[in-house]
UniProtKB/TrEMBL annotation:
GO terms for molecular function: ATP binding; ATP hydrolysis activity. This is ABC transporter domain-containing protein. Pfam families: ABC_tran (PF00005), ABC_trans_N (PF14510). Residues 1-89 are annotated as: Disordered.
Amino acid sequence: MPGSGAGLFASQRGQQTQAQNAGFPQSREEEVLLEPVEHRLSSSSSNSSYTRHGSNGQYGEKRQRTSSEAEATDLDNPPLERRVTHAEIDDEGRRELSRIFTTASQKISGQISIALPDDPAIDPSSDLFDLPKFLKTFRHQLEGEGNEMKKVSVVYRNLNVYGSGKALQLQQTVADVFMAPFRAGEYLKFGKTDRKQILHSFDGIIKSGELCVVLGRPGSGCSTLLKALTGELHGLEADETSIHYNGIPQRKMIKEFKGETVYNQEVDKHFPHLTVGQTLEFAAAVRTPNNHPGQTSREEFSKFVAKVVIAVLGLSHTYNTKVGNDFVRGVSGGERKRVSVAEMLLAGSPFAAWDNSTRGLDSATALKFVKALRVGSV
């Protein structure tokens, strides 16, 4: 989180059921192959036999299957594939990165020399440019100045969260409308509300640099889990000794390391009349470390880092555009999400949670958002 390492937790419940439902629907007439899979896929075997178990109860009936039928069956049942999202950057972003490092002042470029001639993988002007390697090199050079990038792994055991009053938001159903007259006593308690349990004995581990996702139906407590892991309770009650960040209990983490865990709510909140450049340069300025490279001023270095992050996330064309909101015209919804990702990157928070991050986004924009999160977790 959503997400900086993204604070999203993988739900394992129901995986077996989903895997079964992901298969093809069972037909009335099922074919069972007799020969090994290797023999069926072999190009040298032109014919293969199979036994048909029909719905009429006749078993053991055999016939020859031609190679064309075997190929058709293979096409109808393709093997399952697993695709991993990688950090990527388009050509426009590479050109913008190259321009930034070329036009940077000598005081900055002399200390942060990314574009090395002997390594085209970290040269933005090269066709062999590798964004993850570039980001790691950039981070290592910043760490050389004494700015160590923090990494956090989260462990929670027997996590129980309770809510009452305004903090308790239960999913309403049709039956609640008809049962409202019989529950008048709940509205006559004059501020005294019962405490209800939302999360029951949750256990889990989120490793550093890991992207996970929380899945659940509305009202199942997904947002509550994200808020509990980032310490954004605001009326909720949780056992703070159940959550640890690299061995540090949550109570101490919130008190002494505030800003290291970040929660991004469903609706992005920005100053709508500020441009993307002004928003991200301010975010970089408030988190600029005291040990910045060379003899550069704090303002110079913060603007330099902000422009690098803007180029990496493909927001260079929106630099002078207002962020906007539902009432002020500005960037698109997907670009506004990437502005939030950029703020997370510039804040340097090692653990971040994103609540319903792809709300209102199409599939292409949602994929760009996930790739932007992958950039933040490199």
